[in-house]
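Posting this for the archive.
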Amino acid sequence: MMSDSTAPRTSLYGRRASDPKWARLRTDVPSVLRRGAWYRVLAVTPRQVRLTVNTAPVLLGRDQVELRLEPPRRWTVLLKPARLARVPQSFHDGYLVCPSCRNRVSLPQRAALTLRCPRCNVLSEVGWDEHYLGESRGVAVPQKD
């Protein structure tokens, strides 16, 4: 019996250590995924990625997501998000997404180098230099001494 190479693998059997484990939106398209949040990858094919979103599998085009092997370690910065339908008013100028639990928090008054998540208590560096979704940064990036 031959396997279809375009069908996502849905079990851990046959997965390689080099297969992507994490994904997030890389284009601003309508999706159930939160902008800036990383999700676990269930399977990858040349055309599609299957992710776990709120314990349910979600299938997206591979060109719509950014893939990585390692879990995220830095807060994602979103400035002036384009899609505001599911974003609280307090986040319309921008917000940060926790790399550990995907919690969203308001932008800090000053460009802090690190921030502790009020939900999961994990201290992480803030990715001010990341330019997520190609956004221009209107926030001064702190310089390391």
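The longest strand covers residues 39-44. Strands lie at 22-25, 39-44, 48-53, 56-61, 65-68, 74-79, 94-97, 104-106, 114-116, 123-126.
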